[in-house]
Amino acid sequence: MAETTLSGATHPILENDYASEWMGIEVLALSDGHATIRMTLRQEMLNGFGMAHGGMIFAFGDTAFALACNPIHPAPREEGTITVASGVDINFLKPAFRGQVLTAVADRRSSAGRSGLYDIQIFAADAGAPASEGQPSSSTPGELIAEFRGRSRTIPKK
User: Fold this and answer.
1) pTM, whole model, 2 decimals?
2) Number of folded domains that form the chain
3) At 109, which CATH number?
């Protein structure tokens, strides 16, 4: 499988996630309601205009969303459930190109009962480049290229 480890632990939802493996997604940080991941854009991830295919950006954001929604170590009351998307919206703000490193930062905004609301920001930076000028902080992982908002629902495992 792809580099999906964090401090020696593998997130359970990535164990058989062949799409994330193919994308080369690396987990950088996980905590309750939060996930940060990254990947490098490859040629086969581009559209006919030579920029990142919107579906790749969407799938990348969706993986960050799933990781933020599902705990790495479920509590006993959570073991019989999974949290999935009930709906999502994405806004593409700027293009990204081959060789750029994408970083997605997912954060839970609200949780009530079995429903949740998550915001995922997706950034692009040239490999090895510092954060873009005009960004709020030097810790920003590049230029903001997409905003993804996910609505989640916790359901029983089948």
Assistant:
1) 0.87
2) 1
3) 3.10.129.10
